[in-house]
TrEMBL record:
Residue span(s) of domain GmrSD restriction endonucleases C-terminal: 122-210
Domain of life: Bacteria
Keyword Hydrolase annotated: no
Cited Gene3D superfamilies: 1.10.30.50
Keyword terms of this UniProt record: Signal
PANTHER family recorded: AMP-DEPENDENT SYNTHETASE_LIGASE DOMAIN-CONTAINING PROTEIN-RELATED, SECRETED PROTEIN
Position of the signal peptide: 1-17
InterPro entries from the UniProt entry: GmrSD_C (IPR011089)
Protein's name in the database: GmrSD restriction endonucleases C-terminal domain-containing protein
Length: 223
């Protein structure tokens, strides 16, 4: 856990492109490397503070370890045998879905547009349900103090869920916008907007690096 957090803190920051020059933080997005680069203050200081925060952390800082089993997800809230995943697949398919059997509990086929990649999918088995704000990220930014009921609500909140292809979801993992963005660049603005909406809804903390990325995105997208 401690090693993973170190990699998280030291990871290069991604921020969204501007039409030339440096942003107000003293950095810019390099399209050739797909990385955010610092050139002046306060960008350097923000990164330094993140490293120092890790170095000064006590063992107690890492005592609440994330466990996905603590987050009840894909529940059948209305008792119709279709859990959160199946309900979302049904709601977002562009055509009437086909089920695996007569019980109509599990979706087998449909037609889904993947906003992260721009690709269309027909088999439910090729799809994951992505938490826009990942469960592990939420845990690190305040949700470690939540009750089980609060975690269940967050894990099944449709406002925080998207149907995406499984490989892209795995590539994203639990990364924040300064670490990962959808391959489909024309979805970046909507992604940033939904990320902030969910974090604000649940009162989750923002890291400095995360806030830099989202502020730069807001300036670019004008939403």
């Amino acid at each position: 856990m401690k090693i993973a957090l170190l990699l998280f803190l030291l990871a290069p920051v991604l921020v969204f492109a501007h039409g030339g020059g440096l942003d107000e933080q003293g950095g810019h997005f390099n399209r050739k490397t797909n990385r955010y680069e610092c050139h002046k203050e306060p960008c350097f200081s923000i990164h330094k503070q993140s490293k120092e925060a890790y170095q000064q952390a006590t063992p107690g800082t890492f005592s609440r370890i994330y466990n996905r089993k603590d987050w009840p997800h894909w529940i059948d809230a209305d008792g119709d045998c279709q859990n959160t995943r199946q309900e979302l697949l049904i709601a977002t398919s562009k055509v009437p879905v086909q089920f695996k059997d007569y019980r109509r509990c599990t979706v087998r086929q449909g037609k889904w547009y993947g906003v992260y990649t721009g690709r269309t999918f027909y088999r439910a088995s090729d799809l994951d349900i992505d938490h826009i704000v990942p469960l592990a990220h939420a845990h690190r930014h305040g949700a470690d103090q939540w009750t089980k009921a609060q975690r269940r609500k967050f894990a099944n909140d449709y406002e925080n869920l998207l149907v995406v292809d499984d490989s892209t979801n795995q590539a994203k993992s639990d990364q924040a916008p300064h670490e990962w963005l959808p391959p489909q660049k024309n979805y970046w603005c909507e992604y940033g907007k939904r990320w902030e909406r969910v974090k604000d809804k649940y009162g989750l903390r923002y890291s400095d690096q995360e806030r830099i990325a989202l502020n730069s995105l807001a300036e670019t997208c004008l939403y």
